[in-house]
Amino acid sequence: MKPLYTQKEFDTAKSINKLPLECKNCHNPFLISKNQIKMILKKHKSTSGHTGDFCSVKCKSSFQYPPNIIICEQCNKSFHKISSEVKRTKHNFCCKSCACKYHQSHKTKGTRISKLEKWLSFQLPILFPNLEFHFNQTDAINGELDIFIPSLKLAFELNGIFHYEPIYGINKFDAIQNNDHRKMLACAEQSIELCVIDVSHETYFKPTKAQKFLNIISNIIKTRLSGDLPSVS
């Protein structure tokens, strides 16, 4: 216990008055009553279990079980992580963005996006049995569209993180962006409404997570079918 009060302040204080102590972990001042301090000095612990060393349970835990300094496997930045979290994961990353970049660049088979596209290619025809869907075909613009509905002149692209960040290097990134731009121009020339959906924050495929993208696409299709969404002129 490290007092931040003088002996005179202690002597003149009433039992219920609070006096300042310094936290052993964060070194910030905190207040406890004179009565608690007297009990700590006599018994080394108050009736509430307070030892006078820490301002909170969090600080006590941090002092007794200091976090490990871990190096992010993607950006090599150092960060703190408690031991229990280190044991739970095979790889360690400082943020979700780094985790996504790592898994995208170290995939060995398949991709998150292709799994999402495959799942959508099964779900959409069930929801809209009267519509013809083209999945990952090149017939509309002489370039692949993730989802194309000919009768509605409506297309969807599901863009992962490599469409927004140079995961595979700047040259590959420039090529991807140029291809995205070319698709937009080609769709405009063919009066096709192209809807780009950002799925870059999804680090792995799971039906419950994919449902929100199905909802987005379904709502756009329903709006087009109702005639509220104008075609590209």
Keyphrases for this structure?
233 residues; alpha+beta; 3 domains; 4-stranded mixed beta sheet; 8 helices
Characterize the largest beta sheet: strand count, sense, and whether it forms a barrel. 4 strands, mixed
Q: Work out the radius of gyration.
A: 30 Å
**CATH superfamily caption of the largest domain:** VSR Endonuclease
Shape: elongated
Structural class by helix and strand composition: alpha+beta
**Low-pLDDT regions:** 108-112
> So how many helices?
8
CATH class of the largest domain: Alpha Beta
Percent helix, as a range, is: 40-55%
* CATH fold field value of the largest domain: Endonuclease, Chain A
Order of helices and strands: EHEEHHEEHHHEEEHEH
Oligomer: single chain
Terminal Cα span: 75 Å
Beta-strand content estimate = 15-25%
How many DSSP E strands?
A: 9
What's the architecture of the largest domain, going by CATH?
3-Layer(aba) Sandwich
Strand order of the largest sheet: 6-7-8-9
Could you tell me the mean pLDDT? 84
Number of folding domains? 3
Written description of the protein model:
- The protein has 233 residues and is α+β, with helices and mostly antiparallel strands.
- The chain has three domains: 2-64, no CATH class; 68-105, no CATH class; 112-226, Endonuclease, Chain A (3-Layer(aba) Sandwich), CATH 3.40.960.
- Helices cover 41% and strands 18% of the residues.
- It contains eight helices and nine strands.
- It has helices at residues 7-12, 34-43, 57-64, 83-88, 96-105, 112-127, 170-189, 207-226, and strands at residues 2-3, 18-22, 29-33, 68-71, 78-81, 134-137, 145-149, 154-159, 193-198.
- The strands form three sheets. The chain has a four-stranded mixed sheet with strand order 6-7-8-9, with helices on both faces.
- Helix 6 (112-127) packs across helix 8.
- It starts with a strand and ends in a 7-residue tail after the last helix.
